[in-house]
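BUG-346 | component: ligand-complex export | severity: low

The export step for iron/sulfur cluster jobs runs without errors, but we want the raw record kept on the ticket for reference. Input record follows.
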Amino acid sequence: MKPLFIKNFTREQLEAWVASLGEKPFRARQLYKHLYARNVSSWSECTDLSRAFCARLESDATLHALAVSRVDAASDGTRKYLFRLHDSNFIESVLIPDPPRCTLCVSSQAGCALGCKFCLTGSMGFKRNLQTAEIVDQVCHALRDPELGSKINSLVFMGMGEPLANYDEVLRALAIITDPDGLMFSHRRVTLSTAGLVPQMRRLGTTTPVNLAISIHAPNDALRDQLMPVNRTYPLGELMRACREYPLQARKRITFEYILLDSVNDSPVHAKELVRLLKGVRAKINLIAFNPHPGSIYRTPSQEKILDFQDVLRKANLTAIIRKSRGSEIGAACGQLAAKIVTRDS
Ligand code: SF4
């Protein structure tokens, strides 16, 4: 029988489930508080619940949807968690301390079907969508990290998978993560990144005010078709129209992630094309030097090329920030997540 992960329920669903067990509504509120505000790690910590209700929880519901299989720490403070799922798939989350920020990068799928050419996750193929509980529990586990857990103040959906390809589960997870009675993250501190699934992106904009990031990585269709096959379904014209029409809150901008690949997309001509592409969009650009991984055909551009690219964007009055590569020595940097223990451990 499939386990009933208690964290698959939104607050309203939890209330309905608790009522179906014959318990009073306040029991659901108590339980929700234990799960998120207190972030308990065992049912025995829920001391104010009746013994009978606790016994029912023990027998009918599963508290943890993930098990920590391994934690790697890089010299720059980055930590990578490898989680085992109940069906023995693996996923990874990355915790990046960068004071005053401490950001957790969460996964939304085991593997990814979109096959971006520069991404190690893309090369491992698609295993399955994560359930709501498997997304939320990445956050719950990281919040319990003895050194950094209490410092986590922002979340990005930029780990393994395309979040908008797992729309319903991701939206349920977001409801819990941003609920003031749940995990209490402000919408302003949560960013969802997409490779450009336009219909789901439009739905997202009318549903939640979390920040939006677009993995753009190429300024024209010919190049983006090669690097990101999703562009053949949703080409740049369609994607940029959706960005211009995105219902952004005041003072918010869409972040565009651009991985610089040596002699592929990193010339001043590409930068000028990017300037034209972003016209009319409230945008900021994160420039990320490619992080090499075994088997990759791409290389990291020189610092000089990266600065020249940034210069073109800045001269066009765009905000362009060069993001430091974090955690590359433990395979935790952007585009390097592959849950490698799958082959070592199974
Ligand atoms: S970059 Fe993102 S969308 Fe593309 S293959 Fe990697 S995980 Fe999937």
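Assignee comment: Attached the raw record above. Residues 112, 114-116, 119, 121-122, 160-162, 195, 215 surround iron/sulfur cluster (CB under 6 Å).
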